[in-house]
Fold:
Amino acid sequence: MKHESVLVLDFGGQYNQLIARRVRECGVYCEVKPYTTSVADLKAAGYKGIIFTGGPNSVYDPTSPKCPREVLTLGIPVLGICYGAQLMAHLLGGDVSTCAVSEYGKTAVWADDASPLFQGIPEQFYCFMSHTDHISSLPAGFVNTAHTADCPNAAMENREMGWYAVQFHPEVEHTAYGTEILNNFLYNVCRCSGDWKMSSFVEDQIQALREKIGDKKVLCALSGGVDSSVAAVMVYKAVGKQLTCIFVDHGLLRKDEGDQVEEIFRRQFDMNLIRVDAKDRFLGKLSGVTEPEKKRKIIGEEFIRVFEEEARKIGKVDFLVQGTIYPDVIESGLGGSAVIKSHHNVGGLPDHVDFEELIEPLRNLFKDEVRAAGEELGIASHLVWRQPFPGPGLAVRVIGDITEDKLSILRESDAILRKEIANAGLDRSINQYFTVLTGNRSVGVMGDFRTYDYTIAVRAVTTSDFMTADFARIPYEVLEVVSSRIVNEVPHVNRVVYDITSKPPATVEWE
Ligand code: XMP
Structure:
């Protein structure tokens, strides 16, 4: 079924996929395309509305990204945001100039609730501003609909033509009523009916995958993480046994994790799953290695090698599935916005696997949308809601050289922490929590005897994007149970400490 849809026309801002995600939250399918998309393509797609995004440029710079004026006159309502608002003014004959005072951050705004955009919203609210240019005079036919202390034209509209513009960012959380403003645009202006929900996305994707793949062969590297699992199940629902999943068990997973992955994918879904027990290979390569980056490199390379060897046994496949999600695209700097950090995932793409094309069914989704898709697909909720786990696994949580004994101490202590966090009902509010086997040994006393054993560190953080994070305020009573269970139940641990640093300056992982 073809859904009504709205287009986000991308002029290079950082929040572009966030706009699309907010629109989808309002029940309308939305996609992001570059500003260079041709007018013919825009017409052919039959969009109900177009949103011009923000961007770092100035419209009066001749080299700044611009779309043809014709995009505004297709009879499709347009909402301009920040740079997009200024571009609308510029294309329609208004003036844009440098602000006397630039605005950044939370800013009080007064808006006219007679506007279809601000209907049902208090006259004054806080919005998120980030601009050094502003609309200094409105194009003919427009009226002003909002202002701040320093920005006289914080919003403008020409209702007759379906042109709306806001200088602030309704898509970010710091703008109160931001989702309501987008909702108003979609329903009051674009007259959308709201026919989109995650279940329709999943059905559409499965159908599209079925058409694309036909009777060809597909290969997937399954890690047991949320993204590759959801991508694999989606492809499996489309083409069943034409899909083969390779699960490289590097022996650096948490307690029982490898078996759980096998249980879900082989028994629940009856997939073609190849589990490669490569523990000895990985531990052999890692023996005596203490330097964190070296560990990561060894694991990444070995992972690809094992995967390639298994793939070679299968022979040529037509497609390779990857669980790439939207934040991976931005972090790798492929999304058109500025590079924030280079993604440090295990593996990357294997060089020697014979496949024709990459399939990335989750490329436009945010993590929570991926989880919602996973639930739609019937994947067990403990997997769908799993906390992030680094590709190099426990190797970056054993400080210094890695041995089987140390991994076992780490696994047992981590399992206790996870159990107690779940018992305390904190497993969804703390975004990531794990134990670290520090290289430190210290003196303790057990019974009447002196001990000289390891220190386990507990790390737990709250964060929305993992780029910055705060240490979680775990209640002392919970920490107490965790600490006493670990020292009592895990041999060779006589001390437990809690890491109370935020990121920055620390990172989430210790290595
Ligand atoms: P840091 O330690 O960089 O971690 O603050 C941020 C998030 O990324 C995860 N992480 C990794 N994920 N490969 C991954 O796939 C890696 O090498 C890696 N290192 C860190 C970390 O668990 C946290 O969620």
Notes: The two ends are 48 Å apart (CA to CA). The chain has three domains: 5-189, 198-384, 398-498. The chain has 14 helices and 18 strands. The pocket of xanthosine-5'-monophosphate is lined by residues 296, 344-346, 388, 390-392, 432, 466, 503, 507-509 (CB under 6 Å).
